[in-house]
Amino acid sequence: MTDHRWMGAALALADRGVGRTAPNPNVGCLIVRDGRVVGRGWTQPGGRPHAEAMALAQAGEAAKGATAYVTLEPCAHVSTRGPACTDLLIAARVARIVAAMGDPDPRTNGEGFARARAAGIAVTTGVREAEARAMIAGFLTRRAKSRPFVTLKLATSLDGRIARPDGESRWITGPQARAHTHLERSRHEAILIGRGTLEADAPRLDVRLPGLESRSPRRILLSRTPEPGWETIASPAAIGDLAGVDRLMVEGGAKTASAFLAAGLVDRLLLYRAPILIGDGRAALSDIGLARLSDAHGRWRLTDSRMLGSDRLEVYERG
């Protein structure tokens, strides 16, 4: 197998930790010797152990002379929570490190690669880097913008309605689309709604997929009034203060969604569209601060589109 294909396997391991590893990035690591996988690892919930430590523990002596495929530059700093992964790889005497990308954390940021090379380990970088960046979008957004990566979920009719005029909204989309929403919830540390949605629907916001119930995210309420059993923030800008949250899902309603869009805080859109017409109902969005129609163009790019039963899912990311 080529480096490209082995890195694909490491990325699949990293995907297991999406929404579970903050404040650390979700990383995957594969130890390969003589064309055979001898160790696998991915960042565990809460950020420790790191992927490399897990993979090396599994590989044992077989790591000597092997190639380590990692989706992010191995950390170069010693923490109270564990050793530096670069030092572990050097001690294991791997022959080569193949990394998808460098680590922007200033405590590492090239030092991991430099230290490995100084120890005689061959280092290759940039293998499937774009995919690796998408994989740790939460970690990168937190470092660059001091806030979580935000996904906005909207479930609408063909004419852009989220409810009938009387507020009835269960259910616009079918069971397959709703199951996909639960899967998305499991990939975020926290989920947020507004006061109106809380009072109208009293949503549980948990994950109800067999085997994934433990991945239910923290529940955040956008409100100036505290609510028992909820974490409350007063404004969209306050998401930066949510400790341990690198991926935030916003589920509703229209006022909350519009507030996040107007503030420029949405990085990804999940648009579930059902093949129904509602007519005179409640719109998915209100004012989002658009001054001119020309300003609406070029902001979003389609990254995925698929059918979920009779509903269509479209995924957009900021252009």
Automatic annotation (TrEMBL):
Binding residues annotated for Zn(2+), in chain numbering: 50, 75, 85
Residues that hold substrate according to the record: 185, 205, 208, 251
Amino-acid positions noted as binding NADP(+) in the UniProt annotation, renumbered to this chain: 155, 169, 171, 197, 201, 253-259
Pathway the protein takes part in: Cofactor biosynthesis; riboflavin biosynthesis; 5-amino-6-(D-ribitylamino)uracil from GTP: step 3/4; Cofactor biosynthesis; riboflavin biosynthesis; 5-amino-6-(D-ribitylamino)uracil from GTP: step 2/4
Gene3D superfamilies in alphabetical order: Cytidine Deaminase, domain 2, Dihydrofolate Reductase, subunit A
Cofactor detail note: Binds 1 zinc ion.
GO molecular function, one term: diaminohydroxyphosphoribosylaminopyrimidine deaminase activity
Record domain CMP/dCMP-type deaminase: where: 1-116
Alphabetical keyword list: Hydrolase, Metal-binding, Multifunctional enzyme, NADP, Oxidoreductase, Riboflavin biosynthesis, Zinc
Active site per UniProt: 52
Entry EC no(s): 1.1.1.193, 3.5.4.26
Domain of life of the native organism: Bacteria
Cofactor requirement: Zn(2+)
Gene Ontology biological process terms in this record: riboflavin biosynthetic process
Family assignment from sequence similarity: In the C-terminal section; belongs to the HTP reductase family. In the N-terminal section; belongs to the cytidine and deoxycytidylate deaminase family.
Purpose: Converts 2,5-diamino-6-(ribosylamino)-4(3h)-pyrimidinone 5'-phosphate into 5-amino-6-(ribosylamino)-2,4(1h,3h)-pyrimidinedione 5'-phosphate.
Protein known as: Riboflavin biosynthesis protein RibD
Gene: ribD
